[in-house]
């Protein structure tokens, strides 16, 4: 325990006993692996020992639902489901953060000074060592398409990716992919032809890779994949060389936060130099700040991959992704394309492999 | 009598000295205020003839100083300024009479005599004019040292005329003195005047009538 | 007496400030509303663009309108200011085909929008919004129902733009005021230059320089310059008059003095005491006359002096007459005459006048009477009260004057038709001046006993004025 902290504690105790910082709870609802985020949370608790942090790791769907729970609103909301976070902010659930850290945050990673993208997570391909023994591992989207087309037999049932239906992140990533090129649909068709397995999260994909069920994964969260690869040498992570999407985890203070001061402290910590330093050094979440040094920084990633990083823009265009009719149209097309090569006969609604999920669940 | 003349014009100063000395006076002449102020502080004078425009100061200041000291010596102001304001201011400050230049020596002598007589009377309570005298204390009038046996009204008339001797005694003053404020006939006063005239016949004095104004006891020669 | 009362610059500045302030308030109010309008127009057109972009994406599939909301439309809606955005696509029944916020569009608005695209301002959950609705006539194979597209956003961008525009307007206005102020100061300097020039010229002038001004002045100062010129002219005339009067006076005084000199010179040359005596008597008489002349000249000068005006007070004409009569009756000059008073009014009679002037007036008349009548003549003074006037009169039983002379008598420098008697002829001129100064009338007529009677009629003070 440093002397500074003792002095600070003494000062707080002497000067502001009525503030009752010690009893100050903070509830964070997050779609963020506790395991991955642990160093960050530890650092926060060390910096603010008087704040009792309750960190609830949930799925993006659950987090989204908790936002609208007016009876028991959380203080801080963190989610990687960017369009849904954006929609909630647009509905007015966020509280504006006026702090120097918020003001200095890069404009492309925040919206209205209400929601902040505080990580910089590349979307990657991952493959198992077995793949490399049989063929040259893909380095670009075009490589992947070629591989899927030429080695369809070998790769059948060995390919995995997100289910756009069951995963908000997956849906977002595919939407974004589709915006860049229509050849994306050829890739979807190729994956469909290879009977690709659709998973709900990156962890399942990584587990499948480690177990040997899958050889190749597409559109995995780089943060988790890199973390996994460190302890699972059979799994290799490939940042696509043509373009790589970048996902940002978005955090905001809830409009009705019961402990706004603690929530501000938490967000300032996330955006501040200290929090970002922990992100860059001890988590694979990648720091957004350019003045932070560590193995996991956006800057370092750019140096490695070049300018082919395409962060999903943090602006109103994300709202289009959650538009019900747009989403329905996208899903229809997805199903059509996914079956195009394996089942040449068109099946309009075709809920055989992928059950249609009701609108509430899509969120 | 000792007279002090404060006058800077040498011609006038010499004339004053020559005119007043034969009347039995000692005349001291000064041409500057500073000298005059010293003389006034040291010596006793019976009359001061003061010229207002002197080269080293205003005569009114000197007069004011004199009166502030409680000195009651009679002062006759001589000046070329004949504005009414200067006259009023001088009299207000305690001057006893005022004579505007140019003046005739005869008039000056008359004024001087009157002033001296007035101060003399204040001193010994006797009214005199030429051979005529009236002792206010005993009520006895004398002509050439001879007691005049006069009735009461004639005596009062004589006293009043003596009081203003040399100048006009207004007839209203005389009537009031003789008859009180009662209504009297217009000729009543004239009767007493003519009786008094007869008594003064040949004495060198006479009573002159000023029509509509009053009477003046004067020397027959003038 | 010159009292400095502010400065022209300050006056102009006050007017400028007042005018500019009033104008400024108007301009700023106008600027405020116009910047609000400009911001509204700019952002309303973005709403329209977003609505049109969405309209582009509406299609019919199997008799149902389908819309795939374009991301661009939402970015247009959000604007640079990252507004919160709202959109809704309604079918002909008002049912939402698509939309993002549960913002209900009132039926009334929907009806308005069927006629023409319309903009609305609305407060939704405490936040002000600007909404835009337009109807799209779209044709499908089965149906031709119209679709309504509604878009909206929050207003922080509008407010920021309006504020920025307003700030610009204010800045421009402030700069304009400063520049106008500086120009005004310069203009004042330029405009006041003729005044400075005139001041300089006046300061350079010699004290006795009474020539007309020789300068260029603008129209506004012409009157002042002319007034100054006329003042100089009057001063010049007055100075000339003074010089003439001094010359006259000195001439008048020189004549008797020359007589004195000649007489005394002759007497000094003579050996006979009898001649001396005669000369001395002449010198005495002449000195008296000269003194009197000097006094009269002084009176005339005083009478002509403008500043002596206005010292008039309320006076008792009866006691004034009595005092003057007493005074003159006792003088040496009067001893050869019988001066008397007629019966006077018992109560004081008030007139308005100057004490010294009225004494001078009576003195001159008495003096004249003494001079122009033989010794022993009877001179009587009196006062009579008439209805509106108070009359002083002075009459004698002397020889009087002829009717012809009588007519000319009241003119100055007339000596009653005689050149033999001593006198300057100034006496009646003085009398005339004083009579005119007191707004009185003078009448000269033959007395009953053959002599001359001069009547002076003064306006009486009314009882009100007396009080």
From TrEMBL, chain B:
The keyword Transcription applies. One of its GO terms (biological process) is regulation of DNA-templated transcription. InterPro entries: CheY-like_superfamily (IPR011006), OmpR/PhoB-type_DNA-bd (IPR001867), Sig_transdc_resp-reg_receiver (IPR001789), WalR-like (IPR039420), WH-like_DNA-bd_sf (IPR036388). Residues 124-219 form the OmpR/PhoB-type domain. One of its GO terms (molecular function) is transcription cis-regulatory region binding. It comes from the Bacteria. Gene3D superfamilies: 3.40.50.2300, 6.10.250.690, Winged helix-like DNA-binding domain superfamily/Winged helix DNA-binding domain. SUPFAM superfamilies: CheY-like (SSF52172). Keywords: DNA-binding, Phosphoprotein, Transcription, Transcription regulation, Two-component regulatory system. The keyword Transcription regulation applies. Residues 124-219 bind DNA. The modification 4-aspartylphosphate is found at residue 51. This is Response regulator. It comes from Chromohalobacter moromii.
